[in-house]
């Protein structure tokens, strides 16, 4: 999973529609009660390359075994870390030409689609496929909107992870085996690393800075107050938020000056190459280390952002059932595979994430994935801000704009806190 891109406008819509075609066999309504539409399924994703495509291919193999009578149609759209796919998807939905199912980040990112009445409630499928028994209750609660569920997650990623280079830490006199107990202890280690001339904490463009922000809020506020930021029970203008933003400001002072010209792979590469000590990134970053034959525990270590060790910052890819899907039975078949133990095991072994199900066998997965599965089973699951789980797209965009202003020096901390409060209040 990569950074969230906003649901965009529909410039050049006529070209997009010409490319995807009208589809004269489309069903006219959102009836999913059966009676046809099961002979094929168009699955719309942005998984067109790398481990994401490998994961999709693995899921398709299971689907073809479980539903050999349904033809899989790959609707993957490459480009822009998902933004190109979302542009095309929005055009198709507005034109009444939906795919049978589409990928989206689970959680509040679905708000715009729900408010536009573009998604079917799939709660009944949770009962039919016995997913309420397979998924942790924390996750089901986060997926539920006014008593309804609109997607089935295929995987889980963890956002609140620090990746570190042990050699750089050793050079600074920091024990790589001693995880900092809290934010203050971590800042003390960052100061030691700064004295060596290495970058203490690598970050990249704005979305990675928002990613860092969410983890600081988790660490300093705790799960209940962090969740309260998104349900209105925690005051964005309160003293505890001010203290967390001060910690965020301090962390940003230890980052690389070229951050706004980089994206997450370059920031992670700084740690791999020994030019930086730490990077905060979701656990998809493990692939960057493994692809370069770096050994966990020797060439890199990872741990939860100090202070957030009892929390699992969750983000997930999920699949939906659009209103007016031309092949609703085919879509249901795909959703069954997405939620199945076999489908989730195959998909996540290839993609590097972990199953949303709690009954997966840890021995089927890599060493890092096993540690993530263990944490997922015991930690409090809280929603990621930067990756669509905590807020609607418009709120995330406003928070991103405010963060960019702050980290580029265009606003001070007091103005930043007010901008964040305004962003959430406007939702």
UniProtKB/TrEMBL annotation:
PROSITE patterns per record: PROKAR_LIPOPROTEIN
A GO cellular component annotation in the UniProt record: cell envelope
Location in the cell: Cell envelope
Predominant place of localization: other
Keyword Signal: yes
A Pfam family assignment: SBP_bac_1
Keywords: Signal, Transport
Leader sequence residues: 1-18
Entry similarity comment: Belongs to the bacterial solute-binding protein 1 family.
Physiological role: Part of a binding-protein-dependent transport system for a sugar.
Designated name of the protein: Probable sugar-binding periplasmic protein
Organism phylogeny: Bacteria, Bacillati, Actinomycetota, Actinomycetes, Micrococcales
């Amino acid at each position: 999973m990569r950074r969230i891109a906003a649901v965009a406008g529909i410039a050049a819509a006529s070209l997009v529609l010409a490319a995807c075609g009208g589809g004269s066999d489309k069903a006219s309504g959102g009836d999913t009660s059966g009676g046809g539409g099961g002979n094929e399924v168009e699955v719309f994703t942005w998984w067109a390359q790398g481990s994401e495509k490998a994961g999709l291919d693995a899921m398709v193999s299971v689907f073809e075994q479980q539903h050999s009578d349904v033809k899989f149609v790959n609707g993957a759209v490459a480009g822009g870390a998902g933004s190109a796919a979302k542009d095309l998807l929005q055009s198709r939905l507005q034109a009444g030409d939906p795919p049978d199912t589409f990928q989206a980040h689970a959680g509040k990112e679905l708000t715009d689609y729900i408010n536009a009445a573009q998604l079917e409630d799939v709660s009944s499928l949770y009962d039919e496929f016995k997913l309420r028994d397979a998924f942790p209750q924390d996750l089901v609660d986060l997926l539920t909107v006014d008593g309804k569920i609109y997607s089935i997650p295929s995987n889980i990623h963890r956002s609140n992870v620090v990746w570190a280079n042990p050699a750089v830490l050793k050079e600074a006199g920091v024990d790589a085996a001693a995880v900092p107990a809290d934010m203050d202890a971590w800042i003390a280690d960052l100061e030691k690393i700064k004295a060596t001339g290495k970058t203490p904490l690598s970050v990249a463009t704005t979305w990675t800075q928002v990613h860092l922000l969410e983890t600081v809020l988790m660490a300093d506020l705790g799960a209940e107050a962090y969740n309260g930021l998104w349900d209105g029970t925690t005051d964005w203008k309160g003293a505890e938020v001010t203290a967390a933003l001060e910690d965020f400001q301090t962390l940003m002072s230890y980052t690389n000056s070229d951050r706004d010209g980089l994206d997450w792979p370059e920031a992670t590469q700084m740690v791999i190459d020994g030019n930086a000590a730490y990077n905060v990134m979701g656990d998809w970053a493990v692939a960057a280390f493994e692809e370069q034959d770096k050994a966990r525990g020797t060439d890199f270590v990872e741990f939860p952002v100090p202070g957030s060790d009892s929390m699992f910052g969750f983000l997930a890819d999920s699949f939906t059932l659009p209103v007016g899907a031309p092949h609703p039975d085919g879509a249901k078949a795909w959703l069954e595979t997405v939620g199945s133990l076999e489908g989730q095991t195959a998909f996540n072994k290839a993609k590097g994430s972990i199953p949303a199900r709690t009954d997966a066998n840890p021995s089927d997965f890599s060493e890092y994935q096993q540690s993530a599965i263990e944490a997922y089973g015991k930690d409090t699951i809280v929603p990621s801000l930067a990756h669509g789980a905590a807020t609607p797209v418009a709120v995330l965009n406003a928070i991103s704009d405010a963060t960019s202003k702050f980290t580029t020096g265009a606003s001070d901390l007091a103005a930043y806190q007010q901008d964040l409060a305004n962003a959430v209040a406007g939702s």
